[in-house]
Design a protein that fits this description.
By secondary structure, the protein is of the alpha/beta class. It contains ten helices and 15 strands. The chain has two domains: 2-121, Rossmann fold (3-Layer(aba) Sandwich); 124-284 and 313-332, 2-Layer Sandwich (Dihydrodipicolinate Reductase, domain 2). The chain has helices at 11-22, 40-46, 56-62, 77-86, 104-114, 128-139, 170-173, 177-192, 283-298, 305-325, and strands spanning 2-7, 27-33, 51-53, 67-70, 90-94, 118-121, 145-153, 199-205, 215-222, 225-232, 239-246, 250-254, 257-261, 267-271, 331-332. α1 (11-22) crosses α9 (283-298) and α8 (177-192) packs across α10 (305-325).
Length: 333
């Protein structure tokens, strides 16, 4: 039995992570910490007897825990993960793992010293429609990828359980839509392209004002291929669209529909129960995250793949911000 605890009890913990944890055999949530009591009543009603702390430090010092699940706002992730690793706990952390690239290597080293898993929630990789895309790409049905277009459109940023939406405060969020949805896009692209990009260029906008960017366009150059990522919180719809063009065919995703155009006139179409844009917390995708996390705890040989993907996401987001500051000039990676 793995004994775990939440650090941060907001919407993502209650709506996204908790349902999957409660359905998982061999895991017990025994404690939680949050400086706000906003989620306490609901959590205690769903996990009777769970211990509540206002401070993570006190919880880590008082409880017998195998792991923590960090669901606090992004700016706190690095420090909370460091504390948990130093106390000998495995760490599952919501994305972004870090909002400053310089915080990544100390965490990698702390994980290695403690011999504990450091795992980031890259849950979009487990969306059924994207998992099917990954399978088709791996099977080579469209040949080598030449070009990818990724589009995420939202009318606004996802709401938080805090009085003021932390996503709009850079001191708490670490950035705008690039920090938030950029991690989703970059982690999925890493599954499709056989190598990391060689060059990146980005242009950010504040179409509706505010302090953080609400729109981002990122161009990624690979060896013989390219990807264009468009993200916005200032759209007129809620949608996700992807097109992947290969040397022998193409895949097109729009909402809950995936279409394949392959060699020899091959055409196939799949419809999934929900569009990729449905909801914000995705408890049904979190089971795959748990599988990966507990798998790394059980098998040391499997450790490091998720951390490498998180490191790539952190590096790409950092380089994209730098490119924008330089007038959207391309930057070698």
């Amino acid at each position: 039995m793995l004994r775990g605890a939440f650090i941060g009890v907001g919407n993502v913990a209650l709506r996204g992570h908790l349902p999957a944890w409660l359905a998982r055999a061999g895991v017990a949530l025994v404690a939680a910490s949050d400086p706000s009591d906003a989620g306490r009543i609901e959590l205690e009603s769903r996990v009777p007897g769970i211990h509540w702390y206002a401070r993570a430090e006190e919880m880590l010092a008082s409880e017998t825990l195998d792991f923590v699940d960090i669901c606090a706002p992004p700016a706190a992730h690095a420090d909370l993960a460091r504390q948990a690793l130093r106390s000998g706990r495995h760490v599952l952390c919501e994305k972004p793992l870090v909002v400053r690239l310089e915080d990544l290597q100390p965490l990698v080293e702390a994980s290695s010293r403690a011999e504990r898993v450091l795992f980031t929630v890259l849950n979009w990789r487990h969306a059924p429609i994207l998992a099917r895309v990954r399978e088709l790409v791996a099977e080579g049905v469209i040949g080598d990828i030449r070009r990818c277009l990724w589009e995420t459109v939202r009318r606004e940023a996802a709401l938080s359980s805090m009085a003021r939406n932390w996503r709009m405060d850079p001191a708490v969020s670490g950035g705008g839509i690039l920090t938030d949805h950029g991690w989703h896009a970059f982690s999925v692209l890493a599954d499709w392209f056989p190598q990391a990009p060689l060059r990146i260029a980005a242009h950010l906008e504040k179409r509706r004002g505010g302090v953080v960017e609400d729109t981002a366009r990122v161009l990624l150059d690979y060896d013989g291929a390219s990807a264009e990522v468009f993200l916005t919180w200032a759209g007129e719809e809620r949608a996700n669209r992807v097109r992947i063009e290969g040397s022998q065919g193409a895949l097109a995703l729009d909402g809950r529909v995936l279409e394949l155009t392959g060699p020899g006139g091959r055409r196939e179409r799949w419809e999934f129960p929900e569009p990729l844009s449905q909801g914000s917390h995705h408890p049904d995708w979190f089971g795959g995250v748990i599988d990966g996390f507990t798998g790394e705890i059980a098998d040391r040989r499997s450790r490091g793949r998720n951390l490498a993907a998180a490191g790539l996401c952190a590096a790409l987001v950092t380089a994209a911000y730098e490119s924008h500051r330089r007038g959207a000039r391309g930057r070698r990676l």
